[in-house]
Amino acid sequence: MLLSTSNFPNSLLPFPLPKFTPPFSPTIKCAKRTKRTGKLRYPSEKKKLKQQKQPQIDVKNKFEGIWRLSKLAVSVDKDPGKDFIAVSEPLLQEVSKVLEFPVASMLPPEAFTVIRKSFDARKSQKEPKFVYTVDMDVQKLLDLEPRTWEFISELETRVGVIEHLPNNICSNDLINLVNNFKIRETIVGTEGLQINFGSSTSQPSTRRPSVAVVGSGPAGLFASLVLAEFGADVTLLERGQAVEQRGRDIGALVVRRLLQMESNFCFGEGGAGTWSDGKLVTRIGRNSASVISILETLVHFGAPKSILIDGKPHLGTDRLIPLLRNFRHYLEELGVTVRFGTRVDDLLVEDSTVVGVKVSDSKDAGCSNNQKWRYDAIVLAVGHSARDTYNMLLSHGVDLVQKDFAVGLRIEHPQELINSIQYSALASEVMNGRGKVPVADYKVAEYINLKEDQEVSSLVSENRSCYSFCMCPGGQVVLTSTNPSELCINGMSFSRRSSRWANSALVATVSFKDFDALGFNGPLAGVEFQRLFERKAAEMGGGNFVVPVQRVTDFLENKMSGASLPASSYRLGVQAANLHELFPTNVTQALQQSISSFDKELPGFISDAALLHGVETRTSSPVQISRRPDTYESTSVKGLYPVGEGAGYAGGIVSAAVDGMHAGFALARSLGLYKGNLELDLGKAQNAGIVRY
């Protein structure tokens, strides 16, 4: 009889374990792993290595749960390519090396699941390769191939390479997650007072608590989803239009230069990230329960499953539009009232408590048809461009504080040049997004010290970080202005990233010292700072949304570019200008120095084919709306819950969605709809006040 863990209660094997030899085939043996005996590079390494304690796994538990195998490298010539996310034969070869199992073809692919796949083309590597993280289901492996038993028994954990996971590790989309919480709490409630989801326990009546969510970006959508699933009466208010109409409005802007101030690249269903690259990378913890739940939910609404696996997941505008439509339809099925073209002009405040909002048709610039709607709570998820909302909040004494952000220019190269810089001979495998390897991107950063420069004013920051931001391989430069007299830009890509251009913002951090130097003070000093340079860029372009541009080589030499400029993906026209006249000297010098540094890291980055576009100012919110870290409620007025990027607590699609989700749970708890412990259920949220992208 073949030995299988299913022969023992609770999958526990007797101890001590006997050596297992299949009766029908020779014993499979291989050499033992030898320890590295070479010298440590630094004397301090020995001390550091001693401090790293490897987890001790009881041998009987090795046959339970999941083993996670990381850093499995497959060369490009052997791998099926970037779009293949199943278990290939070359990958099984790498798995067999980890298990020290000599016959890779005997390993059943069904026992392994790819959970991460990324492409590593760093110059420090001998060759470009795909790097995998794979989960191994021990029970399934033993059932399908019992001869692996001896090799599993000898597995030892190595942090970041081989790790044992308990049986209770699981992931759920947000819908199933909330339903599981409700089932759990209902079961607990039957032991005492039955919990009634859909009504607040703090109110004797059966009326559902009413919540207005202002803004339909990632934070607003996920807050709405959580609250509606828990039974709140949710109204989603969006000043912009649904993606169908928004797409037509953006088309009119790009083709006929007709800017709809309430429906554009910034305002409308899905928020500013809808017409962008749709990046799902984040710095708040890719493997955290919160982030996984967000990604699983996006898959539920139509995103490809590859976003759960890709090292640098992205959707692209073409995939985001149908996903958002599915999201909206599901919210409506839950009973959420979705109102597009509805602008919140004011809050209704009584005794320092928000009791409702004053709204009007967003096409009505004069707010002549105001209506007052009352709610039990307001979730404010307005995005980083809702400058009128910031002014309105200040009029009610809501605490807003200045926040550092970054400004700069957007650089565009031919995508083939970036492919060549990053991949060398492998660049031919890109094939406009249809090849084996991903369209090449880059991420660069430099800390610039201008202290020794005598021209730098003592009033402004002497040191600042300069970095690439929102890099869009195979993309295009687009207009993100919300006012005809102001000019700002961003980048976007479709899912295939098949454009012949690559663009990225190159930005420098700015702070209150920079605002003060220009005479801007108060909570909205950063907003005025943005406006100044957006208006200046509009003037330098000559108006009509034409963008001022300069060759990167000319920018470094501080001279005007000639009439013959490189082609640009920006469709509303470009105008040669000296971009040194745009920003303060210290910001310009920081950008100059950083570009020179970036060229050392990416030889060829400085090129006559590279074109700088002005201006990029809305990298993140210039303010932060103060809130309590545990309840997410405003510190100034009760009943107001500021969330997402516009409130200064996120940057990017995923971090904004996570913030909205956590705020939704916190508000549901305040309304008596959720009894659990959010930190235990979802893990600790990102630190309040710290924005991670």
TrEMBL record:
InterPro entries: FAD-bd, FAD-binding_protein, FAD-depend_C, FAD/NAD-bd_sf. Residues 404-619 form the FAD-dependent protein C-terminal domain. This is Oxidoreductase. Residues 210-248 form the FAD-binding domain. Pfam families: FAD-depend_C (PF21688), FAD_binding_3 (PF01494). SUPFAM superfamilies: FAD/NAD(P)-binding domain (SSF51905). One of its GO terms (molecular function) is FAD binding.
